[in-house]
Amino acid sequence: MSRLIGSQVHEDAIQLLLNLPNLISQLPSAQGALDQLSAGHPEYKFDLIYMPRSDGHYLDYELLISSGSGLVIKVAAAQESGLPWAHITAEPSYADLLVSVNDSKLSIHSSLLYLDSLIKDPSNGFSRSLEKRLLIQAEFKNLELHVEEAQVESAELQFRRLNGLLSKESMLQWLGSKGMTYDDFQDLMKLNVRICLFREYICRRERAAWLQQHPLLKRFFVVLARVPDSECIDSAALSGMLEFESNASSLSIPKFTEEGIKAMRNGIHFEIFCIFEDALKQRMLSDPDLLQSALNSHENHWIPIKADTLNQSNWLNLFSIETCNIDDGIDWEIDNLVFDDWLERRLSEASVRWHWI
Description:
The protein has 3 domains: 2-89; 145-213, no CATH class; 216-325. Helices cover 45% and strands 22% of the residues. It has 13 helices and 11 strands. It has helices spanning 2-5, 7-19, 28-40, 108-120, 126-139, 149-162, 168-178, 182-213, 235-239, 258-265, 277-283, 289-296, 331-349, and strands spanning 45-52, 59-66, 72-75, 97-101, 104-107, 216-228, 242-246, 252-256, 269-276, 302-305, 312-325. A 4-stranded antiparallel sheet has the order 9-6-11-10. A 3-stranded antiparallel sheet has the order 1-2-3, covered by helices on one side. It has a two-stranded antiparallel sheet with strand order 4-5. Helix 6 packs across helix 8 (182-213). The radius of gyration is 26 Å and the shape is globular. The two termini are 24 Å apart.
């Protein structure tokens, strides 16, 4: 290993791991030690992974060392007796292999580095989605949410219908592929029902106050373009794919040109829908100034927005706006805004810690 990363950095990495505190309460001091190692070897990138033990008091560490050539090395060290039947950290190379395509292989730890980049990139909303899910589960533990058997059966039926799992054989095959038992699946359905009941509870409690703060709502009519990375498309090219006509109510109606129809055949996917201003800002726009820029621009103006999947770019065209009063016709959309607003407020008050430094 010394030939690959240098003997000194190897020795310093092992010394760091042996000297790190193993009490969770002393974790903040680990960052200082990592900073010292990084300062001493600026040609390498160090990622310290810590894993709390089940007792809730102690933790273990691993160190990933990345060189400029793309090499990534995992280092783990522990002061223990090294019993021959307990080689926990002495794994063969294939034990770390996650996936391979032809001769290209991807290890678990390379995947962790990729996951790290996703977590640290706020524009994709990945980390925020996980935080919200955990917050919801933590919040409803304090509530008595009674789940009816009929609700679980309905959730299961809907899930199986949407995923083509109505037959017993296909369902059992799917469970086996996921490493789940039917009881595990039932627990998952009960959890989903509890989340829905919790959402209804929060919306009932928060809706009146939210509506007082938002007596009028701006609703945007938009076209969303999902463009695969294989298609080199910019805003000017997208503008040639749509034309806009006005109907009797002065609402602009998008119409696809021949170029737009051809683009759809090449894999570009268009969606037309309406969305409220708050939801637009929270879910799609990584830069809030983009909204004002689009409003000030001429019609058929495309702006880049958050991509919700990999290997594609998303573009948004705000083709019409209306101000609407609150009525029963948009209850579900209002509740989406109420719940999202409550989640953001609660998350800003929560203690969030990612166990990757």
